[in-house]
Each structure stands twice: as C-alpha cells, then as structure tokens.
Amino acid sequence: MAGGPAGSAFFGGCPAFLPVLPAYFPGQLPDAGGAGAAGRRALVRLFAPGLSPLPHAAGGGALAGSSRRVAFRTEDGSRPGGGAGGPPGGAPGRGFGAPFGGLVAVFVPQRLAAFLRGQPGRSPAPPQSPGAGGFRLAGRARLRRALLHLGLRAGLLPPDKPGGHSCAASGAGSRPASPHPAGAAAGRGKPGAGQAGGSAVSVGVFVVTHNHGATLAATLEGLSQQGQLVARVVLVDNNSSDESLAVARSFEGKLPLSVLPLPENTGFSRAANLALAQLETPWVLSLNPDCRLLPGFLSELLAAVQGQRQVGSACGLLLRGEGPNLLPTDRVDSAGMVVSAFGRHHDRGAGKRLRQAWTQPAWVFGATGACALYRREALQDVAYPGGEVFDEGFFAYREDADLAWRLQRRGWRCLFWPAARAVHGRGLKPEEGRAGQAAINLHSVKNRFLLRLANADWRWHVGCFPFWLFRDLLVIAACLTVERSSLAAFGLVRRLWPQYRKRGRENAARARVSSWRLLPWFYPPWQTRRFKPCG
C-alpha cells in the first residue's frame, strides 16, 4: 500500500489507499467530554452513525506495553449474527451499520483522523470495532506497523480487560477451553450442539472419485486409522474408467463404507450433495481421494472446535504428498484458505516450505475442500432450496470458496488447527501455472464470475475497487490471446447470469454480516487472525 507524497498531495497527508481503516478507526473515537468533543461527535454521527464512543477503561492513562491487543466485538460485546438459523451469540438482526461508516474511512486525511480520535495527550477510548467476531490480530510488530501506516499511534492499543468479552488466551497448539461451560448442557439434543469433541461425537465422511484409483487406497487407509470417530463413509464415483470402484469395495470390511457409482461424471458439487444427503452426523468431512489423514487428525480437530459454537468449518495443516502412498514432504499444500481484493482465493503457503507462521492456530476465511470439516448445522444454514450445499452450477473448482463465502456472510467462522495434519497429493498445483489444463481453465474462468455474482454485493465491489476490475481485464485479455480455449466460459456465464443474479440477491437478503464487515479479510495483513477461543 502506497503513502508518502502522492497521497499527501491529494488527501492532505494520509496514505494513498486505506481500504480497511474502519477496522481501527472506530477504536479511536473520543470520550464524551473535553473541548471539541461535541464537534467530533457530530462528525461521527454524520459519517458513521452506527458507531458510538465508549467510556474510558478504569484507570485510564498510559497503557501497559505487554498486554496491548485488539479484541474486535460488536457494540453489545457479543459477536454479530445471532438469532435463528445461524451461529449463536448476539441479538437477532443483521446489524449492518451505516454504509458510510465503511466508505468514509477509505480516504481520510490524518488531521481529520487525529481530530476525531481526540487531542494529543488525551487518554484513548477502548476500541469499539465493527469486526465480525472476537478475533485478535497476530503479531505486535505487524500490528504496530499497520497502525503507524494508518497514521495512528501504537500507544492507542488498549489492555485486555479481565472478565470482559474478549476471547480467552490460548497458546499455540493448546486446546481451547469453552468459555461457556454450560453450553454443552444447553445444546443437548440438537445436531452439532453441546460438546464438539470426545467419544460421543461422530463424523460422516464423503469422498468423490473420478479415476483416482492410484491414490484411493492410501486415502481410505488413512480414514481407517481415525478410530471410532468415523461413523460412516460415503464414496461417490463419477463414472471412473480405472480401478477406483474395485479399490473402494476392498475397504468395505475395514470401514463403514457405502459406494455410490454414477453412470456419468456429474462434477464434484453434484456428487458431494448426493453424499451429504446420506449423512446425518453432526460433523461432516469433505475428503479428496488423493488426501491421506495422518493418525489423530479427527481427534485433534474435534477437540479444537469443542465449545466453539461459532465455528462452522475447520481445517488442519495439509502437507504435499508424493507417490501413490501419499508420503508427506516438507512443503505446505494448504494452511487454510485466504482471499484477496482481486476476487481470488488462495491456499495459504501452497508449494512453500513449512515455516513457523503456518504452525500457529488461526482464524481463516475458509477451508479447502480437499480436507474440510463442516458443522452440519452450518451447512443446512447456507444451503440453497432442495438441500444444495455445494453450488452445482460450478461443476468443479472454486465451489469450496463459494461455500466459505456464504458461511462467512451468515456469521460462521473457520478455524485452522495445525496440530491436525494430512497429506494431499494435489494433481493441480497452483505454482505450476495453467498450461495443458484447457477444461479446468474453462471452469475456473466461468466460476470466477459466478462466485462474485452469488456472493459479492455492491459494498464488496466498492471496497475492493479497482483490484477486481484489474484482474477481470487481465483474465479477459488472456482468454483473447494465450488461452482462447477458455472463451467459451463467457458464454456459460451469460447463460447462467439471471440465475446467479437471483442467487446473489437471495444471499444478500439472508446475510447476517455486511460486506463492509468482511472487507478486511480481502486485504493483508488481516487475511488471517490470531486464534482466540470464543463461545
């Protein structure tokens, strides 16, 4: 992000582009008294009527250095998106806030920001943020740099308040404890409610195959090592011409396995929905036929989500695998899904050597469909009429990003837990480019636009402009020159346009979290957040 003279010339000394300043800006509102407070409150009411300053924390004054963190909460201290049909917590209603509260902070002169946050030397007010959930930003150094870039003082970070609504601390790799011990008893008898870990929990697994006979045995062998947690496995075969069906049936004595052969290749989404219709467990695992779970994967992941009633999906650390036995390497396949303002989604760390940053628990935008644990209640919450969880218009590719976006808009969160590990062979590696993948590239181009039609409203397009436009022009130019086989994708998009415009309106009407609130996910360094357990 650029700042300096170019920004100063036009915006009075602010960095040239501050797309996510609303995440910090509300926390710098002044208190109710003092000279100039009335004028500042008037500006706040004008530009961000959904926000209000909070009183000082007890003691005020200078803030302790080691305990400065930012806990994002809604105005009542709870997470947004409560009410029927979504994750618990918060009051019913969508709680979008004023759209100008998100727009006004895109370009804000530093002098105006200083005026709104109070005169120098005044004790700062505790932050009140419109962020979705009680997450913490990772890394003091990164947070300090971000604050300085935004023209704010690092000393404005408030200390944790004992007994407040912020999430309890959790060390890397430790199991989170539920902040609401009574929650398990209160949720008894409901799918996905109560305890999320332990022997009482069962997991249903679905696998979709299409000529994956070479690695399928390793995949099913990994499932058989998960103990009694696997209640049922549904394998849907998309008209394979190799030995996939024979390999699958050879495991019927080792696993509670049901095999569903299809007469034609219906695509991943359709096959996955057929499998989901046969599973009734509170948790469902999507597993690719070239992905092998390491021992303890399910027990680690289920223990991590215990008591985390806002978690709609979870994923572990995927390592790249080699050979038909899917032997692990030192390279990362996925450490959770992240998204960008270009309208793209990426597997964090894909193709890179494992490093410390990817061994820490975190909140991420979504889970890659190669190995993703979903709460059944969350899938039912975002399903289209007829029980369509995975969008069948996508056929294959990007359907996991579409599901992740719908879950985020409904207030469900995704947990990355690196203690749960698996190995993924991944036939299509992002770092190897798009050469020789004509059919795949066509679906990828088509689904890029369908993904936005179904999930990105005008707020997202405003907040992420001009990055998505630049990427769109680049994709169109590539299809007109070096990848002409993908031109047919635009005809498919045109044919599906009315259907997906309707889906987009329906998803926007059902959304519990505004696109303004989701914007930070699309910009670094807020694409991942430090894990703090929340009930």
From TrEMBL:
Compositionally biased tracts (Gly residues): 79-95
CDD domains associated with the record: GT_2_like_c
One Pfam match: Glycos_transf_2
Any one GO molecular function term: glycosyltransferase activity
Glycosyltransferase 2-like domain: residues covered: 205-381
Keyword tags: Glycosyltransferase, Transferase
Ranges in a coiled coil: none
Ranges where the record places region Disordered: 73-95, 154-194
Biased composition regions of type Low complexity, renumbered to the chain: 164-188
Family recorded in the similarity comment: Belongs to the glycosyltransferase 2 family.
Protein name per its UniProtKB record: Glycosyltransferase family 2 protein
Species this protein is from: Thermoanaerobaculum aquaticum
Taxonomic classification: Bacteria, Pseudomonadati, Acidobacteriota, Thermoanaerobaculia, Thermoanaerobaculales
